[in-house]
Specification:
Order of helices and strands: EEEEHHHEEEEHEEEHH
Strand order of the largest sheet: 5-6-7-8
Shape: extended
Helix content: 25-40%
Number of strands: 11
Number of domains: 2
Structural class: alpha+beta
Distance between the termini: 78 Å
Length: about 280
């Protein structure tokens, strides 16, 4: 009876049979057409109605912002990151690219070609999922997991038959999201050459995550040096204004504005260049 019965999609109201719908974590149903507007790697049995609606509302903007992020990236990173790289994982093709300055990446799988948007994932969520129990004391521990440069979070699972022969491989990307606990990319693999492609993709993502961490460390050090320089320049401008009858308040205001610009990444001059705009 359940196979032939119809239920209304909670989003569009269309009544569909069991083969054309999924049940949400909150017990409502979502039809296959509305599901194509969500993240293809989301598990509907983990996803509430509100979570699904949030994906529908934000995926397009996230993809657009990710594309725009390449335009504002420093030149030495653009050519290396904007293009998709392709891996043939046995029975299907996967494309991947990332922006290590932004800390985000995209994956396109042929298995999800009917979905409307290419999802964006973030390296600061690429850690094993943990249920949120409201314990704020664990936040520091989770942050240390995120910034662990030695962690190889992306792994490869090998499947073998009864005789021990390799049959398939799966790239497993852990993800700390209520709807997406893992990103799994699987395919047939019958020999060592087939297997190496899976390990190569896993290594690429792990390497890009480490590059993102290193970029963050570099940016923090760079900002710190620029702030120290700005502090010295501001103090000199204040003393000069006080000695010559100039506007001390304006010198202070200019120093504060420059400090804020540094934090927001708006100051593009080198460490030893003049920071003030005159």
């Amino acid at each position: 009876m359940g196979l032939f019965s119809k239920e209304a999609c909670t989003f569009c109201g269309t009544e569909v049979g069991m083969l054309k719908r999924s049940k949400l974590q909150t017990k409502e149903y979502i039809c296959n057409e509305c599901k194509k507007k969500t993240n293809p790697f989301a598990r509907m049995d983990y996803t509430s109605k509100d979570n699904a609606q949030h994906m529908m509302d934000t995926l397009a903007q996230e993809a657009a912002d990710f594309e725009t992020s390449f335009d504002s990236a420093e030149n030495r990173f653009q050519s290396a990151e904007r293009s998709f790289k392709t891996w043939d994982l046995g029975s299907h093709r996967v494309q991947y690219r990332c922006n290590t300055r932004l800390g985000a990446f995209q994956i396109i799988s042929e298995n999800h070609s009917s979905y409307e948007h290419i999802p964006v994932f973030y390296f600061d969520s690429m850690i094993p999922y943990q249920f949120d129990d409201g314990n704020k004391n664990l936040e520091g521990f989770r942050n240390s997991e995120i910034m662990d440069i030695n962690a190889e979070y992306v792994t490869v699972k090998e499947d073998k038959d009864m005789d021990g022969n390799l049959t398939a491989c799966t790239v497993i990307i852990p993800y700390n999201d209520i709807c997406i606990r893992e990103i799994r990319l699987n395919g047939n693999a019958g020999n060592e050459s087939d297997k190496e492609v899976f390990y190569d993709l896993a290594e690429q993502i792990n390497s890009d995550r480490k590059a993102w961490i290193n970029n963050g460390i570099y940016d923090a050090e760079r900002k710190n040096k620029m702030q120290i320089r700005n502090l010295g320049d501001t103090a000199a401008e204040i003393l000069k204004a006080a000695a010559t009858g100039g506007n001390v308040e304006e010198a202070v205001k200019q120093g504060i504005e420059t400090a804020n610009d540094i934090e927001e990444g708006k100051v593009k001059q080198g460490f030893f260049g003049k920071l003030f705009r005159k």
